[in-house]
Design brief:
Blueprint (H helix, E strand, L loop, with lengths): L1 H19 L1 E7 L2 H9 L4 E9 L8 H5 L6 E8 L6 H9 L9 E2 L2 E2 L5 E5 L2 H15 L9 E4 L3 E3 L7 H4 L1 H11 L1 H9 L1
Parallel strand pairs: 6-7
Antiparallel strand pairs: 1-3, 1-6, 2-3, 2-8, 4-5
Length: 189
């Protein structure tokens, strides 16, 4: 009986801790490249690569890559709002992308690599709108990043999760050759 009570108390505690976390969803082109900057941020609990924005249920990477699902490669960020705010997450997001490119990100072309902020409520939407206005001053062209209501997030296959840690050489080769780092260095010095 004591063991069952202990397990029940542990489950209740885990639920209470999980209830303190929030989730944000961002699309910034290749999801492999979006995980590391968020993973490094204090207050981020975890990131998951996946897909959002389309209507097809449980799409695979191949489905999304075809461009026919209307899903976008995205990451889901679980964070502790006592340690990092949604506004701070948006700042990280803007500094990883070219928000003026309507046709993809860097070497990755197509709708499935476009940029978006998936807001979960009106407060997040307003914070995202304000953040977009604040970051517009850094770009000569108009920001075209979409602000979309969150519907669903589908995790990508396991081999895509934490790709930068599992395959560091391939990841670094891809990232450098994508042109992302060169662009970000030029914009953010």
């Amino acid at each position: 009986m004591k063991f069952l009570a202990l397990i029940l108390n542990l489950l209740i505690l885990q639920s209470a801790v999980a209830a303190e976390y929030q989730i944000a969803t961002f699309a910034g082109g290749c999801f492999w490249c979006m995980e590391p900057p968020f993973d490094k941020a204090e207050g981020v609990v975890k990131t998951i690569s996946g897909f959002s924005g389309g209507d097809k249920k449980n799409p695979t990477y191949e489905d999304v890559s075809s461009g026919r699902t209307r899903h976008i490669e995205a990451i889901q960020v679980t964070y502790d709002p006592k340690k990092i705010s949604y506004k701070e997450l948006l700042s990280i997001f803007w500094k990883q992308i070219d928000p003026t490119d309507p046709s993809g990100q860097f070497v990755d072309r197509g709708y499935q690599y476009s940029t978006a902020i998936f807001y979960r409520n009106e407060k997040e939407k307003q914070i995202a709108i304000q953040s977009q206005r604040e970051f517009q001053k850094y770009f000569k062209k108009k920001i075209v990043t979409k602000l979309l209501p969150f519907k669903h997030f589908y995790p990508a296959q396991e081999y895509h999760q934490d790709y930068y840690q599992k395959n560091p050489l391939r990841y670094k080769f891809y990232r450098y050759n994508s042109g992302r780092d060169q662009y970000l260095k030029k914009i953010w010095k």
